[in-house]
Amino acid sequence: MTHAIRFHAHGGPDVLRWEQVDVGEPGPKEVRIRHTAVGLNFIDVYERTGLYSSKLPTTPGREGAGVIEAVGSGIRDFAVGDRVGYAADRGGAYAEARVMPAERLVKLPSAIDDRSAAALMLKGLTVQMLLRQIHRVRKSDIVLIHAAAGGVGMIAVQWAKHLGATVIATVGSAAKQDAVRALRADHVLTLEEDWVAQVKSITRKRGVNVVYDSVGKDTFMQSLDCLRPRGLMVTYGNSSGPVPPVAPLELSKRGSLFLTRPTLFNYTATRSALQRAADELLDLAARSVIKVHVGQTYPLQDAARAHRELEARQTTGSTVLLP
Ligand SMILES: NC(=O)c1ccc[n+]([C@@H]2O[C@H](COP(=O)([O-])OP(=O)(O)OC[C@H]3O[C@@H](n4cnc5c(N)ncnc54)[C@H](OP(=O)(O)O)[C@@H]3O)[C@@H](O)[C@H]2O)c1
């Protein structure tokens, strides 16, 4: 028997319970992983509250690292003992062990330890999607990145700087500004000030090429105001709540803007797309071009406390749960 966090009803962090589960044996093309580290993501909160649907009872968690301890039939590329990491399109990571399809795994290079991998796989692949697939960020770009001191945000700032872009970053309050300045962001604003006016002043009224907005409801309309004509709005999260319906005319009157609402799993749907994105990410991390900031760890059993602190904006960088 192994232990896992499960919830039987949607709700606040208190619905997360530490229970005994039987994860079973891997079926064809599946493996069983013994987790050494599990990544915490805001998506886990959406799943817990019911904003994203899941069948109950369920074990949340879509990011992890560990060692393969059993393989099912038809597995050629992985073997017992391999160190692997993953970003999964469904829950199950908040567990001492899990069974999952081998095609979602990537082998971890020795330069990347398990905690870093658990902090990096889903968040870093998300950044690869944002900066390398949705829009290929260039030196001439000015990009606006919200929640820059968060898990995804810290990786995004470093990667955008590596690509040579000018980075305007926002954080919720002054307490988190220094953490983002240390990543060489060109400007670090707080959401407490008139950040739209600041963006306009920094860009000499032109606006930015791209906004990467994971905050959602609280920042969406103002983010549109920061774009230059034909700029791109990437709304990819709901940390403050989901964005309400928006009229296409709002895009037209601000200068023929583009709007997308991406999901990572559409950008890593095939094995080759996943491996290509992971190779790029893991190479940058192994060379320390991207440094993983694990701001806090919690025992996996204390996942409820980790959720509370993530939602209360008390975390910085990535958060890792330890089985
Ligand atoms: N579309 C995709 O495929 C995809 C994939 C992965 C992640 N995401 C999204 O990316 C975002 C970042 O994910 P993450 O796991 O790295 O989390 P995170 O950014 O570390 O999340 C916490 C941060 O969100 C910010 N925030 C802003 N408004 C908030 C509010 N009202 N309540 C709580 N926090 C608020 C806070 O930063 P400040 O204190 O600085 O305000 C907080 O520290 C999430 O929105 C997530 O849904 C999307």
Automatic annotation (TrEMBL):
It is an enzyme of class 1 (oxidoreductase). Keywords: NADP, Oxidoreductase. Residues 11-321 form the Enoyl reductase (ER) domain. Its EC number is 1.6.5.5. The keyword NADP applies. InterPro entries: ADH-like_C, ADH-like_N, ER, GroES-like_sf, NAD(P)-bd_dom_sf, QOR-like, Quin_OxRdtase/zeta-crystal_CS. CDD domains: QOR2. One of its GO terms (cellular component) is cytosol. GO terms for molecular function: mRNA 3'-UTR AU-rich region binding; NADPH binding; quinone reductase (NADPH) activity; zinc ion binding. Belongs to the zinc-containing alcohol dehydrogenase family. Quinone oxidoreductase subfamily. This is NADPH:quinone reductase.
